[in-house]
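Justification of computing resources. Each target in the renewal requires a structure prediction run like the one illustrated here; the chain below, 273 residues long, is used simply to show the kind of job we budget for.
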Amino acid sequence: MKWFICVVVAAMAVPVVATDSIAVLVDNQNWADEVANYSDAIQNYGGIVMDESTTWWLTGPPDADAGHDFVAGWRSDAPNEYIVMHWTTPLDDRPGNDLVIRMYGGLKASADVLASVDGETYLGIGTLSGDALYTFQTQSFDFDGRLGDGIAYVKVPRVGNGPQTGMFFDAFGSVVLSTLIPGDANDDKVVDQFDALSLAEHWGAGNATWEMGDFNGDDVVGPADAAILAANWDHGVEQTASTLPEPGSTAILAIGAGILAVFSRRFHNPTSR
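Resulting structure tokens:
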């Protein structure tokens, strides 16, 4: 009980701070700023090999014209090709999909999609595939809490090689970013008990994401995040003046109850610790 009181007091005492690391947006999406690395035979659709002066083919928002001039990738017979894209303002790991890649490829085209915070250690987040018509398509990927926030590099290494495996890229960027409400962990535009439960489930966790309850961007779920949730409690809920609760009081109780419930489950089920 003393521990519960400490959590409640901390939530009330910490000032509310909301941050958003996305600084440079075009059409409400965070597009790649540069090509960090690429293999020797990366070329445009017309066969011109990409160099430092033409890496703009892949940066910024989609810009390919009808002739596919502003794309870069590989033809059917070009094994071991790869591209590494970099964001000056890193991509955040938000609820749902986080990365989109606009591209087209042959029926048998395939490539891995890898993500990294530092450009050295990569983790696979999915695969790309082509289609029979070589038409532009956008494929989406979810970081899913595997890397934390601050994903600054995406590497796409070729997998398939041979007939119908050519693949060309137009743009790499974030999904269309919604305006996240401070305290709304699941991004359903309501700050409620479900968000409090998420925060409680991840209380004290490091390498935390927004979806886990890290609302101030310090990579830890703690009292500062509880204060943010409490200050925005019931945001998005239609209320009349007579039904408005005391600011933050219900939220603090919900957070405390959620944390107690989590620790109670862990106490009675040692395997979950």
